[in-house]
Amino acid sequence: xxxxxxxxxxxxxxxxxxxxxxxxxxxxxxxxxxxxxxxxxxxxxxxxxxxxxxxxxxxxxxxxxxxxxxxxxxxxxxxxxxxxxxxxxxxxxxxxxxxxxxxxxxxxxxxxxxxx
Length: 116
Fold this sequence. Notes:
Layout (H helix, E strand, L loop, with lengths): L1 H7 L8 E5 L8 H14 L4 E5 L5 H11 L5 E5 L3 H10 L2 E2 L21
Parallel strand pairs: 1-2, 1-4, 2-3
């Protein structure tokens, strides 16, 4: 199933896949992740980055992709919901949640790292 989902989004079945899901706004930090993609690609050239969501930064992210020359490794999907979104969560290797809001409340039963 993972391979089928990855193929649907033009990602190789063995390509490490990084997923961002959220509003494409400054507070959520998708541009931070976008800026890190070239660094990751230096070490992992087959890595692929999938962004799910809409927001004010949509055009800026497209421009950043062009400027950074990372379009081959990027999938900007827009709004994805339901089973398709669940499939993406199951198919990804890494879920990234960048944020500029250090005091954001995240409710989770799973411990997460916190920067002090």
